[in-house]
Amino acid sequence: MLLGVACPACFAKECNSILTVTAAEAAQHFVHKGHDPNRNAALNQHIQKLWQSGSASVFECRVCGFGFAWPFTAGDAAFYNLAYPYATYPKSKWEFLRTLDVLATLETKGKTALEVGAGRGHFLDLLHQRRLLRLCDVSAIEYNNDALPILAAKGVTTFSHDIRSADFADKQGTFDFIFMFQVVEHMDDVDALFKRVQTLLKPHGSLFIAVPNKTRTDYQERHGSQLDMPPNHIGRWTPDAFRAICDRHGLTVQAVEFEPFDAGGFLLQDIAYSFVRRAQTSSGLSGFVRSLPRSKLSRLAQGAVAGMLFPTRLAAWREAFANRGVMGGSLWMQARREQPDHEPNSARSV
Q1: Interatomic CA distance for residues 88 and 16, integer angstroms
Q2: Which CATH number fits domain 94-228+245-260+331-337: 3.40.710.10, 3.40.50.150, 3.30.230.10, 3.20.130.10?
Q3: Alpha helix positions (H), 112-206
Q4: How much is the average pLDDT of 143-161?
Q5: What values do phi and psi take at 116, rounded to 5?
Q6: What span, in angstroms and rounded, lies between the C-alpha atoms of 228 and 231?
Q7: pLDDT tens, 39-50?
Q8: Cα separation of 148 and 162, whole Å?
């Protein structure tokens, strides 16, 4: 434990350090030095600036299970430009379809919605195709400058401001639905986030969130696969963590579900992640082929070396398949604003 570290989700101080990484290790995770040494060095320096230190830890709350980076500091625009210069947006995800199924059971005619981190609007396209919401009644927050005009062309009202900023302070009770898919795990100051969400929702409005499944992350890190590296993901959410923070802010959790386990997709991802992890930390064959200039030949070489790891993963796979009911890639949560007015009980005992 570290004196003064409290869980951002439930405020408990019973937290254990489970992982410590250096800025150099984090930079290597995002940008292999062999691919781009200059960008790797720049990222290393910027991560140290974010952390105000050469290293960071990941803690786990013994009360609600929430995992969080310490310092609890989110990556900024400069970090993402260095770590992920090419943004990609999947056209469909399980959490999209799960949310659409719920919306189909609700009254959505004439309702308003906000999506935080909308990308190029693939979820909003599905809303439109199923005639659940009119896009003229939808707002979207997105930082990517290439995505903003695409969203605007769909008829969506766009913002490039943080939902917690003063730009949303005057929009109390504006939205019937708020969607945040694979966003919350990137965010710090989560108390301010849920407080703002509660004020933006209309009474009995619904919040839908999807995050990476912490159970899957824990498996990966126990078995030599990729680390869930800060400052990209800084929160590792659990059902109990969602219940604790929602309860504090006048939101009632109505459903929490794990994505169904996809055996084929899991096996391919596990082999790939295990190979990448070895390449990040080894100067051997994995590190060598991973550092080759990007080409069709280098991709084939990486695939061949990754395939050689098959026998080394069998024991880990037995564990994963034994727990497949909670090993899906995402954790999905639906909550509802119950009270017209609510002040967070920050002094609530845990």
Answers
A1: 34
A2: 3.40.50.150
A3: 122-129, 147-153, 190-200
A4: 93
A5: -100, 120
A6: 9
A7: 999 999 999 999
A8: 14
